[in-house]
Amino acid sequence: MNKNRLKGMTLIGFLLLLSAVVFCAYIGMKLVPIYMNHYNIVSAMKGLAEEPGSAQYSEARIRDLLSRKLSVNYVRSLRAEQIRLVKSPQPQLVLDYEVRESLIGNIDVVVSFERVEVLN
């Protein structure tokens, strides 16, 4: 006599898989906004760097223009002090910052970004 074997996932296996998927989705919900803000910052930096004559702007003017562009996109993870203008043979806009987001309890996620754009 041939017995039919049951195939499938047990309840415990399903709950373990579900908890892993929910945990990954939770981490994604915490990290995606950070990277979306960084994308907005990079877009604003590229836009400012491509403006004709931006190499002659003062550091205060560059900070003002960049902070205006970022406020339109609701970027709150960046302060004006984190924007530097490096006067080398070719002026460069240097941005170095990190974002700290609480994950679970006292566990935090720290994401560091560094970006350099050459001004025209």
Main attributes of the structure:
2 helices; alpha+beta; 120 residues
How does this structure look, described?
With 120 residues, the protein is of the alpha+beta class. The protein has one domain (31-118). Helices cover 45% and strands 24% of the residues. The chain has 2 helices and 3 strands; from the N terminus they run ααβββ. Strands 1-2-3 form a 3-stranded antiparallel β-sheet. β1 and β2 form a beta hairpin. α1 crosses α2. The longest helix is centred in the N-terminal third of the chain and has 40 residues, at 11-50.
What is the alpha-carbon Rg in Å? 23 Å
Tell me the distance between the termini.
Answer: 83 Å
The percent range for helix content is 40-55%
Strand content: 15-25%
SSE string, helices as H and strands as E: HHEEE
Structural class: alpha+beta
Number of domains: 1
Rough outline: elongated
Low-confidence stretches: none
Largest sheet geometry: 3 strands, antiparallel
Average pLDDT metric = 89
Compute the number of helices. 2
- Tell me the number of strands: 3
SSE order and pairing:
Elements: H1 11-50, H2 59-72, E1 83-86, E2 92-104, E3 107-118
Antiparallel strand pairs: 1-2, 2-3
Helix pairs in contact: 1-2
Short characterization:
This protein has 120 residues and is an alpha+beta fold.
